[in-house]
Amino acid sequence: MKLEHSEDKFSLMKDNEMIGFLQYGIVDQTMYVNGIVVDPEYRGQGLASDLLKAGVEFARENKYKIIPRCSYAASAFDRGGYEDVDARE
Predict the structure, then answer these.
(1) Counting Cβ atoms within 10 Å, is residue 58 exposed (0-12), middle (13-18) or buried (19+)?
(2) Residue 84 contacts residue 63 (beta carbons within 8 Å)
(3) What is the pLDDT of residue 89?
């Protein structure tokens, strides 16, 4: 599997097919994680977590704060470990 990054998306590719992605937007130094999707065939392998980690690493490198808008990311943020980038109030 290969992780690709475009303007507003991290994509997981396998054999030139997208099997998962994290879609985001950036406004005023805040990264909004709008959705994380993994093909049902590949669920249960930690790929959503890998995508979130890639997004968080990108945010940290660019000094962005994050507002998780999708349930998966919000739930991960609730469990902790992202306090340095969490922009929720």
Answers:
(1) middle
(2) no
(3) 82
The residues near 81 (Cβ < 8 Å, ≥ 6 apart) are none
Contact between 37 and 20 (Cβ < 8 Å): yes
CATH architecture, domain 2-79:
3-Layer(aba) Sandwich (3.40)
Please, are residues 58 and 82 in contact by the beta-carbon 8 Å criterion? Answer: no
CA dist., res. 26 & res. 33, Å (int): 9
Instruction: Sketch the domain layout of the chain as residue ranges.
Output: 2-79
User: pLDDT per residue over 63-81, tens digit each?
Assistant: 999 999 999 999 999 999 9
pLDDT tens-digit readout, 11-40: 999 999 999 999 999 999 999 999 999 999
Task: Reduce the DSSP state of residue 87 to 3 states and report it.
Answer: coil
